[in-house]
Amino acid sequence: MALNLIDDAWKEHLRAMDDLKQSVQTASYEQKDPLVIYKMEAFGLFKKLDEQINRDIISFLCHATIPVEQEQPVQRVIHEGREQKTDMSKMKVNKEEIDAAGNDYGANENDYFDPGPTAVKQQPIVVGPKVGRNDPCPCGSGKKFKNCHGKDL
Q: Contact, 99 vs 118, CB < 8 A?
């Protein structure tokens, strides 16, 4: 709904700007700079647009209501809290086993990380000296480059 308010206000602002454009064209007859008048009036119209949008949105928010569902009363049963102790007698200390297993115990990064095939690093392209059009062709024919291998370029 707020976007609808902004959209309507913006459309009205654009219509007002078109009217302003038409009315400013006659300012040159009054020996005034039409651009300066257009800028001043356009700024005033934009301030009015901003105030109108703010007023409309605040009005909308003040009159808006949030629907609330009626909650059914929940019967709550309160239990008396008692601290429960954990039975530690069944726990087994296996620190020695873990230390003996080393990297083979549990999950380790080597189980999940597969580097894959190593990519071959591409070598940079080396450009030789540039052959001019009138230089002798590097193929050794004795002709100028433009008449030999440079003919197709």
A: no
Average pLDDT of the chain is 79
Residue 15's identity, in one-letter code, is R
Backbone dihedral angles phi then psi of residue 143, each to the nearest 5 degrees? -85, 165
- Dihedral through CA 127, CA 131, CA 137, CA 139, nearest 10? 0
Q: Residues 53-88, buried b or exposed e (16+ Cβ, 10 A)?
A: beebeeeeeeeeeeeeeeeeeeeeeeeeeeeeeeee
Distances in whole angstroms, Cα of residue 37 to Cα of each of 26, 59, 91, 105: 11, 33, 87, 81
pTM: 0.41
Indicate the helix (H) or strand (E) that contains 20.
helix 2-24
